[in-house]
Every structure is written in structure tokens, then in C-alpha cells.
Amino acid sequence: MKNHTIIFDNPVSISATTTIAGPKEGEGPLHKYFHNIIKDDLLGQKSYELAEIKMHIYAIRNLLNNAHLTQEDIDCIFSGDLLDEIIGSNYTMREYDIPFFGLYNACATFGEALIMGATMISNGVMERVICSTTSHFSTAERQYRNPLELGSQRPPVAQWTVTGAGCSLLSSKENSKIKITSATIGRVVDYGVTDANNMGSAMAPAAMDTIITHLKDTNRDLDYYDLILTGDLGQAGVRMLTKLMKEKNYDLNITNYDDCGVLIFNTEFQKTEQGGSGAACSNLVFNSYIYKQLKLGKLKKVLLVPTGALVSKISSLQGESIPAIAHAIAIEVM
Amino acid sequence: MKLDDKGKKAYLKMVKDEMPPTKHLATMSKAFILGGTICCIGQAISDLLHLAMPTLSEKDIGSYTILIIIAITGLLTGIGVYDKIGNWGGAGSIVPITGFANSIVSSSIERKREGVILGLCSNMFSVAGPVIVIGITSSVIVGLIYWIIGLFA
User: What is the pTM of this model?
Assistant: First the structure.
């Protein structure tokens, strides 16, 4: 480990991925890349929480089927979601006989899962792990904001929680040319934003901190990567990050920088204000669109930076500002 | 990592400059139109009641009108229409009695799965509660002021 960055001596293969996207995501610009799109976001369940759990169960099952594996082949699952006490993941794992680590880093949970899984595999402790996250618009909305049927207006800085579930299979058995080569563990950064609707601005400083730390630790330049992809900053957060990076003399430009929250929705037509957010946002975009581009060789070096606003309803009511975290994972074709 | 107060202030200013502003003219005009429309509908119901039941007193007609509007709002909330109206018209949908009805019905629907007593009943007023508390408290304060003025007048 170099400062905050883990350099994997044995790069870890991402052998298979799968995604299940919600109906609104399925109408978005990335619809043709998702493995499955559900038509009903309640999935015939009694509550949205149960629907989210069902989605997660299906995603893991699909991944196992696609990779021709059974549960016995998996050494551990690292997963998380946005619900209180991460019940989404806990109840999902009730259906499987696989060892399980429950994680929470808000929308950066997917990054946390990838780093932990890759570390376990690179060190030879485990052979196959699954990293998964889910989020659901309707469960997040009732937990963090207002009842769904309340006739309230969404502020212009708001973001739309992505409905979906996705998993990646990390493995030392099934080789793939897409490998995790290094990862920077983020630290909690708080620049004093208190507006819980404005998560992009709260997360941008964390993304900046992690990206710059990563570049310094690895002695790399921004140009080293074909694509730097932040998790869910949204359009406003992207502008903040670009400005913050410029102040530190790093020039993020449109050729090699993008944001999952901006990619997943057509913000203008789908009325999602600044774009997508949620634990499934970076997960869905990476496991479908980006993974495909890496497979086709259109992208060779990607820095995935899932970002998370560590906000809770209680802390924001008590007037606390919003701490944020971002992890960086370097994924290269080799 | 926490930023010092000076840094925070500079960052928050940067955020403020960069964020898209609320379009006040558009939102206010929409609220005006929607609020006005709801009031017109109320007036129409009241006029119809006058025609249908000429024997009713003015006060009773007012009460019936409110009941009918609340029932319509409850129905529209239940079938998932009112949140779209509210999203369009903002405060225009909140200020009339319809907003109050919507807040109670939507909270009830939301918590139905957690049981009738601890879910639905205990969370029914989670949005509307503050309105009731502040309404009653301020009416008491206004009453006191009214009484004190009466002592000297």
C-alpha cells in the first residue's frame, strides 16, 4: 500500500457482470446495454423494499447462471444498499448460503465492495467473490425525503435515485483481460454543504480529494486514463468538480471525464433534474456500458470513482453538514 | 477531513454561484393558476350545492364543500394523480385544504405496510402534524393578544 493506494501485484479479473435496471433507467440512453430491464418497479411484491430485495436476488442468480457457477463456488459476497441497517442486502443474503459482508458507504458502496473483493482475491485469501449493490427510487425517497404521493416539487438541484441492481464477479479462476490494477481508498471529506438535496456539491470535494490522491500515489497524469468516471455527482456536481480540480491545476475535460449520474438518464426529457444517484448508479453504468466498452477494447484504462454522500435524515435535521466519500478503482485491459 | 470556516464559506459561495436557480416567475405563475383553479372548483361546488339544496344555511354549504374537496383530493392521491398536480403547481396545491388532505393521505398510504396501528395511524400526521401544532399554538397566542387588547379597550 502506497499512502492511500493499493497497488495489486496480482491484478484481479472482473470475469462477469450483470445488471437489472428499473423502468425509468430502461428508457434512458443506456437501455441497450443493460442485461435486464424490469417493467414494473414493484415486481409484484407487497412493498418497494421487497421489490428491491427481489431485484438483488435475481441479479445474483443471473450472475451465477451466466458464469455457469453455483453458490458453492463463491467464497464471499460484498454488498450493500441505501436502506436503514442495509436490510436490502441482509434479506437478500437470507436466500443464499454464501458468506457475506454487508457494507455501507452510501452511493460509493460499489467502490468499497470492489476494493474489498479485489484485495481478498489479490492476496489469495479468496478465489471468487461477488460485489453487488442495489438502490430503488421509491425506497430511498420514503426514507430520505417525502411520501411518494405527496404533491411536492423537486428542487432544481435534486437528483433521481436509480432503481436497479448489479453485480460483478471477481475471480482468480476465470481469467478475463479486464483487471483491477490499483485502488485508492477514500477519506471522509466535509466542505460544509448542508442542503441534503444538493448532494452533487457535497460529494465533489471528496471526488477531487480521491482523484488527486490517486494520481499522486501512482505518479500518473489525468491523461493516463481513457476515462475518469465519477459515481453520481450529477450535472451540478460535475461542474463543481471541474472547478475544484482547476483550482488545483488539474484540467478535467470532456474527452476523458464523465459521470455515471449524467450518463444514465436523459435529464431533460426524463425530468431527473441533475441526473441519477444511488448505490446502483455507478454499479449499473459500470457493469453494463463501461464493461462492454472495455470488452470491445474501445476503452483501455478507466478510473472509476464512485462517490457517496454520507447523509442521514437525523443528521441533516440536526443541521449537520454532509460528509462525503469517494473511492477510486483503476480498471485496465491487459 | 474537515475544511476550516473560511474555506467552507468560500466553497459555499462557489456552490451558490454554480447551482441552477429556481425559476421564480414560472413557479409562482403556475402556483397562482393552480391555486386559483382549485378555489374556483370549490366555489363551483358551493354554488351547485346552493342550487341543489336551497334550504341549507351558508355555513353548512361551506362545510359540505370542504368535505367534498377533501374527498376528491383523497381519491386523486390514492390513484396517484395528485402528486403530479403538486409537482406542476407547487404551493398552489399546498395552500388550499387539498394540500392538507394530500399530506395525510399520502403519509397513510406510505406506511400502510408497517401495520394499521404503528404504521398507518402513528405516521398519518407525519407531514401534516407541524401544521396542526403550529396552527393551534398560534391561535392560542392570537387569542391571548385579543383578550389583552380587550382589557384595555
Answer: 0.93
